[in-house]
Design a protein that fits this description.
The protein is an alpha+beta fold. It folds into 2 domains: about 5-155, no CATH class; about 165-330, Trna Endonuclease, Chain: A, domain 1 (3-Layer(aba) Sandwich), CATH 3.40.1350. The chain has 11 helices and 12 strands. It has helices at about 5-10, 25, 85-100, 130-165, 175-185, 185-205, 230-235, 255-265, 285-290, 305-315, 315-330, and strands at about 20, 40-45, 50, 55-60, 65-75, 105-110, 115-125, 210-215, 220-225, 240-245, 270-280, 300-305. Strands 1, 2, 3, 4, 5, 6 and 7 form a 7-stranded mixed sheet that branches. Strand 6 (about 105-110) and strand 7 (about 115-125) form a beta hairpin. This is Restriction endonuclease type IV Mrr domain-containing protein.
Length: about 325
Amino acid sequence: MNAAQARQILRGLDEEEPAVLPVSVLKNLNVNDIPDGCGFQIGTIEDSIHKIEWNGTIYRRGANLVGEADHTWTRKYWYSPIGLEQYLDLVRRAVEARQKTCGDVAITYQDDDGAYVALRFEIMTTETNLSLAYAAILKVSHQVEEAATAASDEVGKRISEIAARLSGWGSESLDNLVDAVETASTNQDKGRALEELCSRLFETVPGMSVTQRILTETEEIDISIINGSEDSRFKREGAIILAECKNWSRKCGKNEFVVFRSKVENRSRRATLGFLISWNGFAETITKEMLRGSREETLIIPLTGHDIREAVRNMNFSQVLAKTWDAAVSL
């Protein structure tokens, strides 16, 4: 989409339905290109699917632009270590504090119907260029969410530490954990060995810190990792990295890949990178699915038991991650 096409779309807007514009055209548009009272979202439309860059809408109000951040989440798919209502309560408090000190934000809507919790707030800006306005709005949006994000990470880290202590974390060597994953007599023991093995390996990567581990009844292990890496590959990725480990007797296929990618995309837009770890490898359909999604922002990197064993044998997990990252982006 170019600027002329974007202006044509904006001219046909009504107040009911916002337009969807890519970031690339915003610098060539200004407030006068938008009918008063109408708005736009930032993202793309592919195969009738909206892929939104920021959860919110930017409106024209007279001569000004106003961004309305939209935090509407369902408890069913909320993965943060703290509850959804607690997280949004912290965001609300931050908005109210900033409103008193800066006067450029305001709560516009909040509701909790049991399944969904919603919080929307406006961010005012004096910028009239759409690109500059979006940057200013995004900056304030991130600032008011910082405290809630930090609290979630801190709670997750504390829970992880307590779980590790209760499970006798660290009493086995990495070599013994590899053996346990392959030879333990029960799926539960294999799962716990794989949980500890992968978590401890991610802890060896400079700047990465495991904050949450969840072992499900299907032996799927979700590991949430704070990304503070200075490696140029990972520094560009989101604040959260998600890993999922599958200690199955069969290979992991396309369906598991697609479900995991959805989990990464659903992490409040804080995650762009995920590692799908399948101890017994992957079906050929994985490569086709990676090629199909190669233009998307979210990157899913497959890791096999062979990769993990190599990392333990050579004590080079950082290098293994870098190598698999390079392979994934070069498809």
